[in-house]
Design a protein that fits this description.
Elements: H1 10-35, H2 39-47, H3 52-80, H4 84-89, H5 101-111, H6 115-141, E1 151-154, E2 159-162, H7 175-183
Antiparallel strand pairs: 1-2
């Protein structure tokens, strides 16, 4: 079965290989974010009667939101500028079924020696990636929110950051945040 030679299956084959390549990176990225959640939060949720599913859905997932946003942005920007694996596997073919902007730019710049057109494609890629990244950051963060998921609180003695552990519409109010807010440590 010729997966790379068939124009109908070539793109799906390349997508599968790229997904196979980057899945471990994003798995380690998410595991690192998950291990940074304090066990005190889990223990407080268990004391309050939360099941493991409720803990993950209502507490851990919202705390992982900033890391998941970053991973989504990294993934999207990476997919827009991907070149090497597609070029090695298919060269943009068969026909133009796996042609990306990066392979298109390479063909015009270095195979057809049309450097001006290739540079224009590269500039277009830069503008497209910048616009898509900015729009994605705005959409993921809502109206002017911060990417790290923290909110500034003032107490008259200076600014400090409080974790947003309280889940709107949920049942848990994290004791660690109360301690920070009430005792200032």
């Amino acid at each position: 079965m010729d997966l790379l030679g068939n124009p109908r299956t070539a793109l799906y084959t390349v997508i599968g290989v790229i997904a196979w390549q980057f899945t471990p990176f994003y798995m380690v990225y998410c595991m690192a974010a998950y291990t940074n959640i304090s066990t005190d939060v889990f223990e407080a949720a268990r004391i309050d009667g939360a099941t493991r599913g409720q803990y993950f859905r209502k507490i851990a997932l919202p705390l992982l939101k900033p890391s998941l946003k970053s991973a989504a942005i990294l993934s999207m920007v990476g997919s827009l500028k991907y070149f090497d694996l597609v070029y090695v596997m298919t060269g943009g073919g068969p026909g133009t079924s796996t042609e990306l902007m990066a392979t298109y730019m390479y063909k015009y710049s270095f195979s057809k020696f049309n450097m001006g057109y290739g540079s224009t494609v590269a500039a277009g890629m830069f503008i497209l990636i910048s616009v898509v990244s900015l729009v994605t950051v705005k959409l993921l963060n809502g109206k002017g929110g911060k990417l790290d998921g923290r909110q500034q609180e003032g107490d008259g003695k200076g600014e400090r950051q409080l974790d947003l552990c309280y889940i709107a519409g949920g049942y848990l109010d994290c004791h660690r945040c109360h301690a920070l807010y009430l005792y200032g440590s």
